Amino acid sequence: MPSAAGWLPIDASQYAFTITGGYKWLLAPRGTAFFTVQPEYLDALTPLNANWYAGPSPWTSIYGSPLRLAEDARRFNVSPAWHCWVAAAPALELLRDVGVEAIHAHNTLLAADFREAVGLAPYHSAIVSAEADEKVPELMAEAGIVAAVRAGRLRLCFHLTTTADDVARAAEVLGGHLR
Q1: What pLDDT does residue 1 have?
Q2: Residue 80 carries which DSSP code?
Q3: What are phi and psi of 35, to 5 degrees?
Q4: Which residues of the chain have pLDDT under 50?
Q5: What pTM value is reported for the model?
Q6: 167 and 111 in a common domain
Q7: What DSSP element (H or E) covers 21?
Q8: Which residues contact 101 (CB under 8 A, 6 or more apart)?
């Protein structure tokens, strides 16, 4: 699964396996991740880190040998980073309540508006990547714009917390400095 899970509508049933981190687009803390596997492929994988949480009923399979693994994808679970998952739950509920289709429309519209405002070619994505001149990191820091500039390229992402005012401000500050 691409790391775009959370803004890009994805049908995991089209793939044998998917995996994605919860950080960034899914608004969850670092330490959360998701894995799906189609039932017909379960036996093709070996659960390398299986532990008590991979049992069919963790609280009854927690003690004693041999380790009894769940028949379904739960067999790949590891003991969760509890605090991460406590924070991930409301983030995922928010994404569910808003809906990925609505998030996709919001994010891609803002990115398209930014591209147009700074003269970049249209591209249907919530992510804008462009060559950035040497002034861009300093301009972003002074304006409080949070984005990445690496090896001379800007990576700017638009998500639920981004507003049209944010887009206008970023375009005003960065316009003329991107190619």
Answers
A1: 40
A2: -
A3: -135, 135
A4: 1-2
A5: 0.86
A6: yes
A7: strand 17-21
A8: 9
Q: Which of 39, 71, 98 corresponds to the end of one domain?
A: 98
Judgement on whether residues 17 and 87 belong to the same structural domain of the protein: yes
Specify whether the CB–CB gap between 122 and 115 falls below 8 A. Answer: yes
Task: Report the pLDDT value the prediction gives residue 175, as an integer from 0 to 100.
Answer: 95
Question: Which pair of structure tokens corresponds to residue 168?
Answer: 């206008």
Name the residue with tokens 């995991």.
12
CA neighbor of 53 nearest in space, from 28, 22, 23, 85: 85
User: Which two three-digit tokens encode residue 24?
Assistant: 């960034």
* Distance from C-alpha of 56 to C-alpha of 81, rounded to nearest angstrom: 19
Rounded CA gap, 179 and 115, in Å?
10
pLDDT of residue 11: 92
Closest to 51 in 3D by CA, of 83, 81, 77: 77
Residues 17 and 84 in one domain: yes
109 located within any domain: yes
156-166 per-position pLDDT tens digit: 999 999 999 99
What CATH number is associated with residue 131? Answer: 3.90.1150
**48 neighbors 27 (Cβ within 8 angstroms):** no
Structural domain count, the chain: 2
> Token match 């861009």: residue?
136
Instruction: Specify the pLDDT at position 116.
Output: 98
What pLDDT score does 60 carry? 85
